[in-house]
Amino acid sequence: MTGDQLVALFVVPSARRAGGGDVWLDSLLGCLGKHGISAVALFEEDGELVQRARERGCAALVAAGNADRGPCDPGELVRPVADVIARHEPAVTVFWSPRAQVYGARAHALAGGPGRTAWVQHVLPSRFWLHQAASDSPSDLVICVSRAVQARQEHLYPHCPTAVIRPGIDLPAPAPPRAAARQALGISSSAPAIGVVGRIEPWKGQDIAVRMLAEMRGKTYSLVLIGDRHSASWPEFAPELDALATELGVTDRVAFTGHRGDAAILLHGLDILVCASREEGFGLAVLEATAAGVPVVATRCGGPEDVIEHGATGLLVPAEDPVALAGAVEQLLASPQLATRITARAKARYREEFTGDHGAARFAGAIRALASGKPPQTP
After folding, report:
1. I need a labelling partner for 341 at 20 to 30 A (CA). Which of 71, 89, 171, 247 fits?
2. pLDDT digits (tens, 9 = 90+) for 190-201
3. Domains along the chain?
């Protein structure tokens, strides 16, 4: 411990600030100190998050022998992670993904088992071997980012203790002018722009969003797909998406931006944020949109339902239903009063529950409860 602060060690696979879990971790490492937690972050590789953590005053380490390498075989990490755990003797060690949990549980045992352990399930779990291996490895707690993740985790792996800890984030300030954000997104006209944020992969539902756009016949709306087109798991999906847009006659209204590290602030250039996902553990882009004052239409795909209350802070529609998505988007575009009311309530809820400080307070409370042997309280 440092003074009266608890030491928490975070073991993190990726040092890239690319996905929602990375953005959340970046926020946490900057906020936990004010909530009595001294955070130490151990990354598998060097990268942007290592530098950002150090700039925030957090002790950030790179696994021994891996500073100049990319991701390696998890078995190679057991010993260096065990050495760090033994050296710091954290009250709680948090493994930031199922992958980290698999080798981290072995490292914790090798280090003599100091303190308690938890791991974070960011996505809706499945019988995928990695989720099963993580759930079968010893742990005191599975941190679930939404009620949907918790329900699925408890259904598939009922032997694992769970708690819901929802993320929180802060948007960079000041926000760019709308015109500047639209220019950065490549939106040249004043026509309404609908955005989807996420890597171009099937579970994110960009194909559903393209079909949604095609349902809006005779309209000049544009669809902006913000996210990396290159997926190692589904390399064929982006070309299939191009072909679908051509087939439906909407190619000239669909724009791909590629990965944007500044996506959260570029949301200010959109008229509506759509989450078209087939399933979603949490959906940080939905939270970023509410913080930016952008109205949200989301599918009932899991995590977004923890943020969006239908008709009050956004609109929810069934998953896999482009017609319903189109109807909800057109409802908001046709009624500026409804959109304004929804965004005001959504932004107020964000300020009350989902800022970076709120998220850190929830996480710190769970760490303290775990360290004392008490079950964390799920909101």
Report:
1. 171
2. 889 999 999 999
3. 6-169+356-371 (3.40.50.2000), 178-354 (3.40.50.2000)
